[in-house]
Amino acid sequence: MRQRGRKSQASYDVPTVSGASPRLDPPSWLTKDERVLFVEIVRACSPSHFVRSDLPLLISFVQTTLLARKAARDPEGIGAWEKAVRSQCQLARALRLTVQSRADPKTIGRRMPEQRQSAYDTGWEDLDA
User: Fold this and answer.
1) Domain count of the fold of the chain
2) Which of 69, 116, 115 has its CA nearest to residue 88?
3) Which domain holds residue 64?
4) For residue 90, is it within any domain?
5) Considering the domain boundaries, does residue 43 fall inside one?
6) How far apart are alpha carbons 29 and 129 in whole angstroms?
7) What is the pLDDT of residues 86-109, one digit of tens each?
8) How far apart are CA 44 and CA 24, in angstroms?
9) Distance separating alpha carbons of residues 68 and 80, to the nearest angstrom
């Protein structure tokens, strides 16, 4: 049966639910260095950026990043470094960690600070007179 008369304020109140999504935790089987980098990457992004299904890609990205760092220190490891960096770039794009994958090209220009006019735009030819 419908309520007669005016509705109370309490009937309009909606229970509050915390909208904060929990951040991903590193798996226990990762090495210490992998865990540190995993947490660093996850904390650098918004809490809702990664979901549970991103875990395998994120772990691969962490391992590839550490592999690239290790290969960069080895003078003869340029081939391994190149392959690791190529994989790292592909994984970063898939995880939306690159600027290109996060930003809308139409809005990037709006975020750029105003640039000063160049001498060509200001009519520097008039300065000779």
Assistant:
1) 1
2) 69
3) 51-102
4) yes
5) no
6) 76
7) 999 999 999 998 887 777 766 666
8) 12
9) 8
**Span 15-28, pLDDT tens digits:** 655 566 688 899 99
- 62: number of Cβ within 10 Å: 25
Residues 6+ apart with CB under 8 A from 50: 23, 24, 42, 58, 95
Residue keyed to tokens 């960690």: 97
Q: How many residues does the chain have?
A: 129
Which residue matches tokens 């994984």? 91
Does the predicted model carry a pTM greater than 0.70?
A: no
Nearest to 119 by CA among 128, 111, 110: 128
What DSSP string runs through 52-105? GGGHHHHHHHHHHHHHHHHHHH-TT-HHHHHHHHHHHHHHHHHTT-SHHHHS-H
